[in-house]
Write a structure and sequence with these properties.
The chain has 379 residues and is α/β, with parallel strands linked by helices. Helices cover 52% and strands 11% of the residues. The structure holds tryptophan (TRP).
């Protein structure tokens, strides 16, 4: 049997991703032990997603640390395509971005691409729908705990006056053939999505433009967004800006076999608004790295590498490295059965959802302080 070749694009992630190959394919750099040491010294502690290789690749991270060591502030930029409810998979890079914001006291631009999700993938949603999801997703973003006054949620059609002019400047330097080569657009692609990558580049430069001097920018995001940054880095010097640096994460696996968590396949994903019962049901029904029978599991052990239950602990839910190691050992040794492990994870997920949902309610009161409009920028 030949294994299906994994696909990683901004719109599709399927198959079992070989992250080392992806570093080669995309031309990014692995996060070395030396870099981890520098982050630890600068930040005071390493986030579990760094210790465990969830964030595994970068461009120019060393430069960002140089800048920081010289006492210069850098900004953060990340984003979300508002096409549906937030899953805990979406929150992986957000939680990490909060760590960076806290440790480096950085200003954060958080783009919500309501235009992109109306344009792509075809047939897209109505703008009314993507604006609805913008507000819904924004509640989850605020509930993640970003700093008030240092975090701007920028939705493209709500901040069009601010963003569009800069997008035009970017677009002038990008040819149709470049966009086709980077994103694989066919001739049947609508003209909106051909232009859109220029919009996604803008928040990387916005702070520089607003303050009137170059501000270094670091983009934490899942690796599938890398094609956008290749384009943005290419044109940055032409506009007199620094190339944005990046730090890339892996994907949280879905609860069903293969692929990442996908909001369009509800049983594959835990939504931030799921009740305890629904979340538990999904976990109990999940695919695991376990064997067909208890006897085989006891004898041969499970495979934590391919098991979403174990991976959820690793990405999000088990803060203690020693406990995580112990769970892995008991899984590999056949001591820990999948049913028992699912039960334990369901408890942690329920606790997370409860406190997230409380913060999500509170976020409704302050949403408009975060979700800015054009007027904010013309003040
Ligand atoms: N294109 C991204 C998506 O579909 C949304 C996005 C915009 C983004 N700017 C970003 C993601 C910056 C990460 C970092 O989800």
């Amino acid at each position: 049997m030949t294994e299906e070749r994994p696909i990683v694009t901004p719109w599709q992630v399927t198959g079992r991703v070989d992250y080392e190959k992806l570093i080669e394919q995309f031309g990014t750099e692995p996060i070395t032990g030396e870099l981890l040491g520098r982050i630890e010294r600068a930040a005071g502690e390493l986030h579990l997603q760094l210790r465990r290789g969830v964030f595994f690749s970068h461009r120019d991270l060393g430069w960002i640390l140089d800048v920081h060591e010289r006492g210069v502030k850098f900004g953060l930029y990340t984003g979300r395509g508002p096409s549906g409810p937030t899953t805990i998979g979406h929150m992986v890079p957000w939680i990490f971005t909060k760590y960076l914001q806290d440790k480096f006291d950085a200003k954060l631009y958080f783009q919500l691409t309501d235009d992109e999700k109306s344009l792509w993938p075809p047939p897209g949603m109505s703008l009314e729908e993507t604006r609805f999801w913008t507000r819904e997703n924004a509640l989850d973003i605020v509930a993640t705990g970003f700093k008030r006054g240092k975090t701007l949620l920028v939705a493209d059609t709500l901040c069009a006056r601010t963003l569009y002019g800069m997008a035009v400047e970017v677009a002038k330097h990008v040819t149709y053939s470049t966009v086709k080569a980077i994103f694989g657009f066919e001739d049947s692609a609508n003209i909106g999505i051909i232009f859109f990558p220029a919009m996604q580049a803008v928040p990387a430069f916005l702070e520089s433009r607003l303050v009137g001097k170059n501000v270094p920018c670091l983009i934490p995001a899942a690796i599938d967004q890398d094609p956008y940054w290749r384009m943005a880095r290419d044109i940055a010097p032409k506009l007199g800006f620094f190339k944005p640096a990046q730090i890339h994460s892996k994907f949280l696996p879905g609860l069903l076999a293969g692929g990442k968590m996908s909001a369009s396949i509800p049983e594959s994903a835990i939504f931030t608004t799921d009740g305890e019962v629904a979340a538990k049901r999904k976990i109990v029904n999940a695919f695991t790295g376990g064997r067909a029978t208890v006897e085989e599991q006891r004898r041969l052990g499970g495979d934590p590498e391919i098991c979403p239950i174990f991976q959820y602990e690793l990405f999000l839910f088990e803060p203690d490295d020693a406990k995580l190691e112990d769970t892995k050992r008991r899984c590999l040794g056949g001591e820990l059965l999948c049913g028992e492990h699912k039960e334990a994870l369901a408890g942690k997920v329920a606790a997370f959802l409860r406190s997230h949902q409380e913060r999500r309610e509170e976020a409704k009161e302050v949403l408009d302080e975060f979700l800015v409009k054009d007027e904010y920028f013309s003040k």
